[in-house]
Amino acid sequence: MLDAPHNPGRIFLPDHTFFELLPVLPGSFLMGSRNEDAYIDEKVVHRVEIGYSFHMAKFPVTQALWLSVTGKENRSYFKGLNRPVDSVSWYDAAVFCNRLSELCGMPPVYFSDKKYRKPYGKKGDEYFLRNESVVYINLQANGFRLPNEAEWEYAAWGGSGTGKILKPDANRHFNYSGVHTLDEAGWYAENSHRETKPVGLKLHNELGLHDMSGNVWEWCNDPWHNSYDGAPADGSPWNDPQGVYRVLRGGAWNYDPQGCRVSSRNYYRPAHRLSNVGFRLVLVSLPV
């Protein structure tokens, strides 16, 4: 359910735990990087047109929110209710999104069948962290989900704000999300003391999003491709639902600045549960 109208993006759960979603307006941007510090998998710079608004969580999912939604054990390596949940697989994140959608009276997005009849992770009335199997994503369902990779990068750059196409270098005045230096934006190998930190302690970007650079890597919907050749140009994920790896974005507490740049990319097997990996929520339309 929603908070009072003055804060339409604040979602309250039955136990009064809440989280915030921030709007991201339509627009175009140049995805990838030709900078000298860019990795080869970033260097096919291509224009992406996101023709729809969506909402992204202000913070990565915290351990408090994880416990509120799942009621399951907090397996995070670095314990703290206001720290990002870590040691969660891509499959775990999909189950979380489905359960959260149900709690908010919204349709699930992740399914075990092509016809979108069996919500992934649900058996009877209960949800289970299966950590395996084929998952089909129904992007037409307006439930909570992971960001598509293009959505993640667009939001991390701060969006266009006006819907206009960005100039070739307009989104390269900084490497990190909203700032010139990583120490201002995030937790990484040189300042993290080898652990995650509570969310929201560093500066946010132009959209108000925190922790987009560093702290934990964030799962995206997309299967991994080692080049942007043939990548969708409309903000959708790659049409390859059964890829071996899934994309992660944002860098983490144990990475150097190069790995925490907005355009930097990473991947793991979707069943991996690692202490430097968490996730962030996206919702296209707010519930009413």
Describe this structure in words.
By secondary structure, this protein is α+β, with helices and mostly antiparallel strands. The N terminus is likely disordered. The protein has 4 helices and 14 strands. 46% of the residues are buried. The chain has one domain: paralog of FGE (formylglycine-generating enzyme) (Alpha-Beta Complex). A 4-stranded antiparallel β-sheet has the order 1-2-5-14, with no helix packed on it. The protein has a 4-stranded mixed β-sheet with strand order 12-11-10-13, with helices on one face. A two-stranded antiparallel sheet has the order 3-4.
How would you describe this structure in keywords?
single chain; 288 residues; alpha+beta; paralog of FGE (formylglycine-generating enzyme); four-stranded antiparallel sheet; four-stranded mixed sheet; 14 strands; globular; disordered N terminus
- Categorize the overall geometry: globular
CATH topology grouping: paralog of FGE (formylglycine-generating enzyme)
Largest sheet: 4 strands, antiparallel
- Overall structural class, as computed from helix and strand content, comes to alpha+beta
Unreliable parts: 1-6, 162-172
Number of strands: 14
Distance between the termini: 8 Å
Q: SSE order in H/E notation?
A: EEEEEHHEEEEHHEEEEE
The number of domains is 1
Mean model confidence by pLDDT: 91
**Major sheet strand order:** 1-2-5-14
User: Helical percent range?
Assistant: 10-25%
- Please identify which CATH superfamily we are dealing with: paralog of FGE (formylglycine-generating enzyme)
| CATH architecture designation | Alpha-Beta Complex
Which CATH class is shown?
Alpha Beta
